[in-house]
Specification:
The complex is a heterodimer. By secondary structure, chain A is mainly β. Chain A is 0% helix and 50% strand. The chains are: A mainly beta, B mainly beta.
């Protein structure tokens, strides 16, 4: 069963506008973590932001924020004031707190974001 | 600080040849992960190590794949013999561990493998 769903294979946004990338997840574990990574065309995977399941506030890192809706099991990434350099693939990922697979992180299929000048 | 270092960045080889991918994790990180990325299957975890010990290799596709971590600063992923379907980008990542329940994995730049 798919644990991480990213329903938007491709997105376009105008430069300087905000954009939301969707991510829904499936877990029965009360303890988990959610991550977003960026993969530009050069290929490297860059960590952006983290949200723990028990965190009371939504995570923010500069222009990135995570809209965490626990009851809906969604962890959408919001990028404010898009820049041309934001054009990349974005991956949502989850780490479940089960003892037997304590440190495994599962990645979603990704969303391709293109920022238009 | 140096990040995760992978070599080579690109590898082109012929079917049947042995391929060795190398990774140097971030100093002090206890966990090391090998991933494979393809268009069809996305990012797949192949194997991961904790303190140089393989913990979970259930993602290793076949016996042709093997991984070692002889010390805390070096790991290899070997494919022998290689096949065209092994063509992919292979990533190594390392993590400082689970302190505070955060397990941020830091990735290397990847090795793009092409098997002809």
């Amino acid at each position: 069963a798919q644990k991480i769903t990213q329903t938007q294979p491709g997105m376009f946004v105008q430069e300087k506008e905000a954009v939301t990338l969707d991510c829904t997840y499936d877990t029965s574990d009360p303890s988990y973590g959610l991550f977003w990574y960026k993969q530009p065309s050069s290929g490297e995977m860059i960590f952006l932001i983290y949200q723990g399941s028990y965190d009371q506030q939504n995570a923010t890192e500069g222009r990135y924020s995570l809209n965490f809706q626990k009851a809906r099991k969604s962890a959408n990434l919001v990028i404010s004031a898009s820049q041309l350099g934001d054009s990349a693939m974005y991956f949502c990922a989850m780490r479940e707190g089960r003892r037997t697979s304590y440190d495994k992180v599962i990645f979603g299929p990704g969303t391709s974001l293109s920022v238009i000048p | 600080d140096a990040g995760v270092i992978q070599s080579p960045r690109h590898e082109v080889t012929e079917m049947g040849q042995e391929v060795t991918l190398r990774c140097k994790p971030i100093s002090g990180h206890d966990y090391l992960f090998w991933y494979r990325q393809t268009m069809m299957r996305g990012l797949e975890l192949l194997i991961y190590f904790n303190n140089n010990v393989p913990i979970d290799d259930s993602g290793m596709p076949e016996d042709r794949f093997s991984a070692k971590m002889p010390n805390a600063s070096f790991s290899t992923l070997k494919i022998q013999p290689s096949e065209p379907r092994d063509s992919a980008v292979y990533f190594c990542a390392s993590s400082p561990g689970t302190s505070g329940r955060i397990n941020i994995q830091y990735f290397g730049a990847g090795t793009r493998l092409s098997v002809l």
